[in-house]
Amino acid sequence: MSTQTLSTVAINVVGQYNQAGKHLVRAYRTSTERAVGAVNERFAAAVNARPLPLVSENVKTSLITAQQHLVNLVAGGLSASANGADATIDQIARGAKGGIERIAETGTKIETVFNTSVLDTVNVLALPAAYVTLEIGSLVNQRTKQLSERVVGTQEETVAEAPAKKPAAKKRVARTRRA
Fold this sequence. Notes:
Blueprint: H1 3-49, H2 57-114, H3 118-153
Helix pairs in contact: 1-2, 1-3
């Protein structure tokens, strides 16, 4: 086993966690968009559901438009934070990958200069733990992908409203008369 083998496994681990982070950001972004849509719909429905005294249709329309602008402003901020999270995840992964590659190159140089196989022994000892870490990273990536697909995939589905509860039957209480 060489340093490159261990470094390849480590780079794959970084890649797995990078993808897991991307899946979570995707789920966050979709959930945010869905929440914004729901807030806009429910606010408009609430305003239009009842006649409000001294409020004309123009005022209602202006109120709904103002609310939508405010919610869209908040949604824009949340979208920007998701974009920042994506960029940060990529930057961290690039930095980690670059660091792993530099360490591997340095290890190879040291091994060549000192003509030693100590690093090979370290690699043999560390490789099983690296594979376990890779498996964990792969599992985390798979689960976050499933979560993301579940969140994104249910976007087209409409949320079923809870059925209206029937009013409970009134109980007649037999009252006794006081004498």
